[in-house]
Amino acid sequence: MTETLVIGAIFAYLLGSIPFGLILSRLGGYGDIRQIGSGNIGATNVLRTGNKALAGATLLLDMAKGVAAVLVLAYWGPAAAAVAAIAVFLGHLFPVWLGFRGGKGVATAGGVILAYLWPAGLAVLATWLIVAVITRYSSLAAVTASVLAPVYAWFAAKEWLPTIVVLILAALVLIRHADNIRRLLRGEESRISLGARKA
User: Fold this and answer.
1) Would the pLDDT of 198 be above 50?
2) Burial bucket for residue 167 (CB in 10 Å: 0-12, 13-18, 19+)
3) Is residue 60 part of a domain?
């Protein structure tokens, strides 16, 4: 079982480390997305290219890798699913291909939680969407969803393992958004541009 967990963790990490935002932006002719906007490789920064289709594809693919890792490893039981959940997320945050400098993990965390504990995942995604639409702050939506995610997990599972796994993911998302939180408090955070130009 230990060997299975180690192999599973490596698989999940490598899957999570695929930088879809960077790949799609280059294929779309926008060059290195890390040289645009916030320098992040996630969907929100891809949206700053003005190409909503690429941003949407990045969002879906980043979520999909989280879903895939958890569903594949869940075949070997709850412990393997938990390992996959954390490993695929760490892969996105610290991809070996990009010098361990990855995204902030919001979409991937959403996909992970959706596959790992779907009632909590739906609640997290709904929270993010509602806050993002109302405020147009992607970062505030991520922070709000992350704070509530462990609460959703506890009520959905009533078990410690899934709650702790979701708590770890949420804590990492909050840490990655430290600069965004400071900008929000100063009133300097940029909003999502719903009227981005078409490419």
Assistant:
1) no
2) middle
3) yes
